[in-house]
Amino acid sequence: MDAMALLLDRQSHGRLEAPAPTAEQMELIYRAALRAPDHGELRPWRFIEYTGTGRETLGSMFARAEQEDNPDISDRTLEKARSKPLRAPVVIAIVASVTPNHKVPRIEQVISAGCAAHAMLYAAHAQGLGAMWRTGGFAHHSCVRQAMGLEKDDELVGFLYLGHCTQGDRTLKPLEPDDFVERIQA
Ligand SMILES: Cc1cc2nc3c(=O)[nH]c(=O)nc-3n(C[C@H](O)[C@H](O)[C@H](O)COP(=O)(O)O)c2cc1C
Known about the structure:
Elements: H1 3-9, E1 16-17, H2 23-33, E2 45-51, H3 54-69, H4 75-83, E3 90-96, H5 106-126, E4 130-134, H6 142-147, E5 155-165
Antiparallel strand pairs: 1-5, 2-3, 3-5, 4-5
């Protein structure tokens, strides 16, 4: 795939189905993540991959978070939270693993992990896979953070849902660079 076409045409796919990406495809996705810009070579990221029934572990975390916020929650809402990770055959939690009190500020380390997630979206698209970056209501919940072993300064930058697209591309709303760029020329 042409690199510019990749950059200009990528889009998110929320409806994803099996089969899961192959081991070779996953390897390339992680390798792309590891090429993210990284001030100080801190490698401020880690990835937790949920597949098969492993996704139920993540669903249980979501359900626990939901229940903690609202103990009187209905079974239906609880089940909805629990089933969220089943929306794709692979879900990857991307954690900004932050080195505290470092000359590279925390925000730069979190951005770096975000860049890794971004690279993963492109690596998926380049291989004909569908992907979507989600945080939902749970990524920053103390329950989920604790279950994933996040340290105080860490950040869960999101969940990457990965699989095969069930639908074609949607028509994108055109955006114009001139609406976002300020040019200082003198
Ligand atoms: C940090 C982050 C978190 C996001 N969380 C969600 C989410 O929880 N739910 C959602 O529908 N979209 C979420 N999005 C947006 C989608 O990933 C996607 O970018 C959006 O639907 C636009 O689609 P596009 O990527 O094709 O332009 C998130 C994006 C980012 C960068």
